[in-house]
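subagent[fold] <- orchestrator: predict structure for attached chain, return tokens only, no commentary.
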Amino acid sequence: MAVSRSELASRAYDAIVVGSGISGGWAAKELTEKGLKTLVLEAGPPIVPARDYAEHVPAYALTYRGFANRRALNREQPVQSQTGACDEWASKFFVNDRENPYSYDPKAPFAWIRGRHVGGRSIMWGRQVYRWSDLDFEANAKENIAVDWPIRYADIAPWYSYVEKFIGVSGQAEGLAHLPDGEFLPPMQLNCAEMHVRDAMTKRWRGERVLTVGRCAVLTRPHLGRAPCHYCGPCHRGCITHSYFSSVGSTLPAASATGRLTLRPNSVVAEVMYDERTDRATGVRAVDAETLAPLEFRARVIFLCASALESARILLNSKTSRFPTGLANSSGELGRNVMDHVFGAGASGTLPGMENRKTFGNRPNGVYVPRFRNATENHPDFLRGYGFQGGGGRSSWLRGMRTPGFGAAFKDSLLSELGPWEMDFGGFGECLPRPDNFVALHPTLKDKWGIPALHVQCTFGPNERAILKDMRVTAAEILEAAGAKDIKTSDDELPPGLCIHEMGTARMGRDPRTSVLNGWNQSHDVPNLFVTDGACMTSSGNQNPSITYMALTARACDYVVGRLKRGEI
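subagent[fold] -> orchestrator:
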């Protein structure tokens, strides 16, 4: 039955979840399955997989044959198109930069990559999932940097397992203390080049440096009604078989099955409403993305899952007489400590031999070299560390786009003359939290819906630059140990944001004077307000963060429902 906008807004909900991506989908699933009537507000339009997913659409069926309308991209998506995933197939999954402006110092660029639609960036994410360990959770305290995490690995380990069992993670157990094993489906196979490099690393470093297949949220066997991956490859364009985890294919359907979910797309949340008499959040104010009509929704509990920067923007815009600098900001830390992984440095090389071997299909995964710096011995030049992602392969028929030739013989050569094996490694390094990396509301700039835009100030410091330098050295060392030729090191000097792992802005901590959230992702200041996206992160680790967001969200939802049942919220 159709429900009018006014009727929808007048309903009372147990919980409101802002955002429908990685964290928001999990909040929706957990809260509804535990009995709460939950409203999920998504700023963008709905996604219909049969209409919107394009992983099987060939280039010849596209207007620009896969090369995209560069003039339109430069005009409408100059920031979004900095990532290769914003191509002719998938640019619809990225925001229009003109409608969603933000600012930064031209001398300190920040690339804010966003997806505003049901499912958010869970449709385009890299699907790599790596647990944290106490090496990560204890680092701030041991090094006297920022503030201590209010949790340890033992607090989140059961929730990692809970999440992994639902989303489906393929991977290989390695028994590493600083990269805990998870609940794995069968791993994807390494190819011959990757096995060669793995064996050379074992011989040279005897377990100090390890190569394993990537741990990814892509199915290798049927799982909870979802089909295994068929290796078509371009996952960022969507997956009609739901073989990789997304909220569209997994958590939101689970929430909908309870009968307690209301999902409202095209609802741009501007602020959280707050009652000073009760010291509680009462709901949210939003704007209808299509009509620009103002909206209000009320609930007992609010979950912000809109992404690290967007959740901070909402809170900064939610000013009251008690919180003149933003809701839940008595600490003054709201918006501060922005982090993103430093990446873009590494090395590549050619591996002689194995010319009679080739790959099958298009594996949506690569290899992973877990952190080895500052894991057991301190490095003299920097704190924390980095991991490598990459893989081995041979030039495919796609090289025909830049190779002169025509006709049947030319086409045959593209399949039979593949060229040598190549191996590459790219590092993903930890970014230290610093209060001078922050977001703030711009004094005049607003988005299409009249909501104040953000100004982002974020740079990498000496520690991150030292990490980038070491990435090049050690990647080359690994390739040299494997007998690679023509080794080339690189550093693309990429700006913060482009790794799309932005974190911080509303960090967790033990002390309300120095943190925004407690160990349950609950606001120190406003007891019924929770933030479970990347904003909550107290440090960044070097692992892809999404699995940690999911585990923290499930854990926070369990805590909320228990508190509600006891009448404590």
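orchestrator: received. Logging for downstream: The radius of gyration is 23 Å. The chain has a mean pLDDT of 96.
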